[in-house]
Amino acid sequence: LFFQKPAPRSFSFSLSFSLSTMSDPVLSNTSTLKKYLELPQQGHVMAEYVWIDAFNEVRAKTTTLDEKPKSVEDLKEWNFDGSSTGQALGCDSDVYLRPCAIFKDPFRRGDNILVLADCYNSDGSPNKTNTRHDCVKVMSQYASQKPWFGIEQEYTLLNESGSPYGWPKNGYPGSQGPYYCGVGTGKVYGRDVVEAHYRACLYAGVMISGINAEVAPSQWEYQVGPCSGIEMGDHLWMSRYLLCRVAEEFGIKISFHPKQMLGDWNGAGCHTNYSTEEMRNPGGINAINAAIAKLAKRHLEHIAVYGEDNDLRLIGKFETNHISRFSYGVADRAASIRIPRSVFKAQCGYFEDRRPASNIDPYLVTSIIVETTCGNF
Ligand code: ADP
Ligand code: MN
Ligand code: MN
Ligand code: MN
Ligand code: MN
């Protein structure tokens, strides 16, 4: 009786039942797993190819190499089933992965690597999801101006059922105030994930420059930069991959939504700090002002690529200017563009574009900033 095939109806019933109401334990870091991870790799290297799908999320799969590559040129072009990632139709489903950048793999360690790749169709044209391809062109066109970026990635930790991590089951935590850069029980939520991610980024070679707890409980930030040109998008995407992987081991989900909690809770952004060589040099404040004047003229074109649902976040409250308005100011966190006080004092340095949302595609955002400020607008 036990070996009888279940009737189709009861099978589909039990499947949907188990998906919606039960969950298996998170199998990670068990002593059983550790035994296998100690086995030698016999000289082989595992290369985890990471790419961006049609939903602005990362995907990844692994291939075995016979030796450690010295640069991306040593890595093969690979492919995947684009019909399963929203990147191709089933009838012509092969999408090609071209290696762009190599990082160390903090999960497998040793000589194992992470490979950031961009996506091409079978006819050689860039896939519709490949925003890196055009970003490279923009960055090389204006390379002589030496653009640098630093992005402040904000995000929210969620539990497996999708509620903010650590929030009471029925009700809300106390109002905002003690959480930003908070210290101590009841003020910080999920620091383990943040610490693990920070270390994983440093190990991998991602240019992470700091972390802090954010204004809403279970909301955090890390900064990546300064990075020059195309590096900004590459490093931010790899940092997101690392965050989702680290959180997976803790059974925690990452939300990059700009307004995860509606109501009196801060939204999440990707403040984009930016400078050219002229801005960084003595007297650079003139170049900063000139760039801001150009940004003012193209506000709506920038907003168009500054993230989905950003209108829920840019409401003229919670340290934002309204999405329909453009303004700038020294040390003003309610402005679209902030010139840091220290930069104003030194009369050179960089400025902060506060408009981009947490779910931006950094290739689009860095491209348009360089285009607008270095081009003839
Ligand atoms: P905030 O005060 O807005 O919270 P953060 O300290 O979080 O600022 O982030 C500042 C960011 O500015 C960092 O990512 C840093 O790398 C970046 N940054 C610093 N100097 C420059 C520069 N000259 N050009 C571009 N970005 C810079
Ligand atoms: Mn297969
Ligand atoms: Mn910050
Ligand atoms: Mn912040
Ligand atoms: Mn900021």
Automatic annotation (TrEMBL):
Q: Where is the GS catalytic domain?
A: 131-377
Give me the reactions it catalyses: L-glutamate + NH4(+) + ATP = L-glutamine + ADP + phosphate + H(+)
Query: In its UniProt record, which GO terms are filed under biological process?
Result: ammonia assimilation cycle; glutamine biosynthetic process
User: Which InterPro entries does the UniProt record give?
Assistant: Gln_synt_N, Gln_synt_N_sf, Gln_synth/guanido_kin_cat_dom, Gln_synth_cat_dom, Gln_synth_N_conserv_site, Glutamine_Synthetase
According to its UniProt record, the EC number is 6.3.1.2
Q: Name one GO cellular component term.
A: cytoplasm
Ranges for domain GS beta-grasp come to 43-124
Keywords of the record: ATP-binding, Ligase, Nucleotide-binding
Q: What class of enzyme is it?
A: ligase
Record-level Gene Ontology MF annotations: ATP binding; glutamine synthetase activity
Assembly? Homooctamer.
The record ties this protein, via PANTHER family, to: GLUTAMINE SYNTHETASE (PTHR20852), GLUTAMINE SYNTHETASE 2 CYTOPLASMIC (PTHR20852:SF57)
Q: Report the family membership.
A: Belongs to the glutamine synthetase family.
Q: What is this protein called?
A: Glutamine synthetase
